[in-house]
From TrEMBL:
Keyword list, A-Z: Oxidoreductase
SUPFAM superfamilies: NAD(P)-binding Rossmann-fold domains (SSF51735)
Keyword Transmembrane helix attributed: no
Keyword hit for Nucleotidyltransferase: no
GO molecular function, one term: oxidoreductase activity
InterPro entries according to UniProt: NAD(P)-bd_dom_sf, SDR_fam
The protein's name in its UniProt record: Retinol dehydrogenase 12-like
Family: Belongs to the short-chain dehydrogenases/reductases (SDR) family.
Length: 323
């Protein structure tokens, strides 16, 4: 009997089996904690979510709005931010959702955004540093920073630093930094911040910045002890979002194809961030790293080095100091 692989792939049984496998695999992604089952309300609370116009960030902001919070969408694109704003207002009925422009790759933009917040807001209870990018081409910003490091780490560091007093005044308050399991593949080399000795191979720069996120978060938690402000970082899971938009078509196609079966949706990817930001279970926990299922796990060894954390924090303070 002569047969070809194409005969198998085109057979109805193959297609039915593939569909069943997809359903089973997607069902296995069900999280142990679901925001919909969390009764916490946020009336009278103010939250900022960076990168809130799409993907994980939009679903985080949507959840906060459903809970009655005053939500500030910090977005780089006014057009996409406005679209997200309208969608969230219409979906939740919460009109106390607002858009402010923020480009974390620009220190001037971060300072301008923070100045507006400090002028307009009397309190800040939740700060979610979600904005980030992967696959950016090698480029040095006007601040003489490598663009991935500026976007994913230095900008969020400066933003948080400028809003710390407001967070302390509003305590209890929570800082939540979205990192990634890829931080395990990252390396600490402070020359990278200026683009030196940095290889732009796939997600290498992204991985380095995600490691710096965790190191900074843990050191922030140490410095904030006794203030009522907590700081935690997390891995949202491998999420099917437009995070790969800066890669070529083939890589994006493969990512989306595999992602359909195995990756989380953007809504599911928001769960661990929401858990850290609002859940009663996370209240008072600080300086920790949460996995995609909201469980506490150990980060990479370098993220647990107090001496490195202090060096990291002081380095970023010098880097973001006004000339």
């Amino acid at each position: 009997m002569n047969w070809q692989w194409s005969d198998i792939y085109s057979h109805p049984i193959w297609m039915v089996s593939a569909a069943i496998l997809a359903i089973i695999v997607r069902a296995q992604r069900k999280a142990s904690w679901n925001p919909r089952a969390c009764p916490v309300k946020l009336e009278g609370k103010t939250a900022i979510v960076t990168g809130a116009n799409t993907g994980i960030g939009k679903f985080i902001a949507l959840d906060f709005a459903r809970r009655g919070a005053r939500v500030i969408l910090a977005c780089r694109s006014e057009a996409r931010g406005t679209a997200a704003l309208q969608e969230i207002r219409e979906s939740t009925g919460n009109q106390n959702v607002h858009l402010r422009l923020l480009d974390t790759s620009s220190l001037d933009s971060v300072r301008k955004f923070a100045a507006e917040i400090l002028e307009e807001e009397k309190a800040l209870h939740i700060l979610v540093n979600n904005a980030g990018a992967s696959g950016l081409p090698g480029k040095i910003t006007a601040d003489r920073l490598e663009i991935t490091f500026a976007t994913n780490h230095v900008g969020p560091f400066l933003l948080t630093s400028l809003l710390l007093d407001l967070l302390k005044k509003s305590a209890p308050a929570r800082i939540v930094n979205v990192s990634s399991m890829n931080h395990w593949k990252g390396e600490v080399n402070f020359d990278h911040f200026r683009g030196h000795n940095l290889k732009h191979v796939m997600d290498a720069a992204y991985n380095h910045t995600k490691l710096h996120n965790v190191i900074w978060t843990n050191e922030s938690a140490r410095r904030l002890q006794g203030t009522g402000v907590t700081a935690n970082s997390l891995h949202p899971g491998v999420v099917l979002t437009d995070v790969m938009r800066n890669y070529n078509f083939i890589i994006r196609f493969l990512f989306n194809l595999v992602g359909f079966f195995f990756f989380k949706t953007a809504e599911e990817g928001a769960f661990s961030t929401i858990y850290c930001a609002v859940s009663e279970e996370a209240e008072g926990i600080t300086g920790k790293y949460f996995d995609r299922d909201c469980s506490l796990v150990l980060p990479a060894p370098s993220a647990r080095d107090p001496a490195l954390g202090e060096k990291e924090y002081e380095f970023c303070e010098r880097l973001t100091a006004k000339p």
